[in-house]
Amino acid sequence: MKPNFIQKVTNWGNFPVIEKEMRSEDSFKKIKEFVLNHNEIIARGNGRCYGDASLGETIFSTKKLNKFISFDRLNGIIECESGVLLSDVLEISVPQGYFLYVTPGTKFITVGGAIASDVHGKNHHAEGCFSEYVTEFKLMTENGNIITCSREENSDKFWATIGGMGLTGIILTVKFKLKNIESAYIRQESIKAENLDEIFRLFEESENWTYTVAWIDCLQKGKNLGRSILMRGEHAFQHELPQNMTKQPLRLKKKLQPTVPFYFPGFVLNALTVKIFNLLYYKKQAKKEVKSFIDYETFFYPLDAINDWNKIYGKAGFIQYQMVIPKEAGKEGMKQILETIAASGNGSFLAVLKLFGKNNPEAYNSFPVEGYTLALDFKVNAKLKSLVEKLDDTVQKFGGRIYLTKDSMSRSSLTNYLKNIQSSKFVSLQHKRIINNNS
Fold it and tell me: Which residues in 162-301 belong to E strands, given as ranges?
């Protein structure tokens, strides 16, 4: 009797929730059989993306593809299966003096997912996307063949897969470069900004820093619109560190990780509680500017310190809405975005502003363009769809785009992306929604 693989599946936002077939295999032979025996498949990593990405009629989970193949410690090149988590990579690489060139705001995504989303981090203006440091990967195509993809070999599939959200096949293994570090700590400067004009000026003044990111209070209006705190950082050299960090500069002490034990009731998150949280967050930094040394987990992955933090948004779930506005229109575009959010009362606990540098034209499915990107978390409620439509209209007006990895409601899409999904066997709910909205 065949086992029943039908199960409830959702991503980190707990919206939407579907009931579909999901399988996981660690044998390439079995994966080939799975691909050949299904007409519609989408690959899924650790489910830490948002929205309806990696959800489909039939889902292949890469969780069992979790083995390391090699680690060239001399040149900082790692090869692993696609289901390996970034947290796994950091666990073995940081003590050896290496770090990820590019990392998003969680370390609990898979390496394959990092390629499919072509993830960016706080350093896009300086070091680009994850794909810049991928040398090659092995891809299983819809006929079950395994091909090696790189800039020189099968380059068309290489670039279509990067940022392609699973449209070309199942990534099996990946080889990518790491960067040298001397310590597991970041030299950080944290600067308060009173409004949008000031935070944009601070971003421009900080372009020579490797890492820049700002928390922004999205419910402020008038002269305080865009009130925020900029964090900028660099990997700390050993000689810079305070004495208490020099004993084992590449190793961090284990920390206690609290867990959110249940879904919060829906009434807990509302305009008032979000406003109070934002006020306290802004006021907790008493000085205009604070300099410090913090460990890389605190700097890059503050939310990873709390297990199941997504339950704070309740059983209805939440979406993360992320857009980018081209640089020349960035300030005016963000002003209108923030005014729309403030007027709606649908505030976000987590509103993050970053600066993107020039995009790689070869990575045509990749999200970033030179400009400013804002990511916001919104609790799912009856008013949310209307807000998203207004935000989409503003993004389109200023020539921006939406990040597909976090999208579950938007109408916007990428023209090149559409061209590549019309005849693919690897189809998700997101792919279908984009085609339907643009047909």
Answer: 170-180, 185-193, 211-216, 228-235, 289-295
DSSP 416: H
**Is the distance from CB of 60 to CB of 164 less than 8 angstroms?**
no
Question: Crossing angle for the helix pair 196-205 and 330-344, nearest 10 degrees?
Answer: 140
Q: Residue 413 pLDDT more than 60?
A: no
Amino acid at 244: N
Write the CA distances from 165 to 47, 54, 168, 434, integer angstroms: 13, 7, 8, 12
Please work out, in degrees rounded to the nearest 5, the angle formed at the alpha carbon of residue 258 by the alpha carbons of 256 and 262: 160
390 burial via Cβ count (<10 Å: 0-12, 13-18, 19+):
middle
* 107 to 91, 240, 303: CA distances (angstroms): 11, 26, 10
Q: Which residue has the tokens 């409601």?
A: 409
Q: Give the span between the Cα atoms of 357 and 368, in whole angstroms.
A: 8
Contact between 313 and 347 under an 8 Å Cβ cutoff? The reply is no
What are 73-97's pLDDT values in tens digits? 999 999 999 999 999 999 999 999 9
Q: Against a cut of 0.70, is the pTM above it?
A: yes
- Which two structure tokens, joined as six digits, stand for 5? 């693989």
CA 266 – CA 268 distance, rounded (Å): 6
Instruction: Tell me the backbone φ, ψ of residue 107, rounded to 5 degrees.
Output: -95, 5
pLDDT tens-place string over residues 299-350? 999 999 999 999 999 999 999 999 999 999 999 999 999 999 999 988 887 8
CA angle 116, 117, 119 (to 5 degrees): 125
Query: Is 375 in contact with 348 (CB distance < 8 Å)?
Result: no
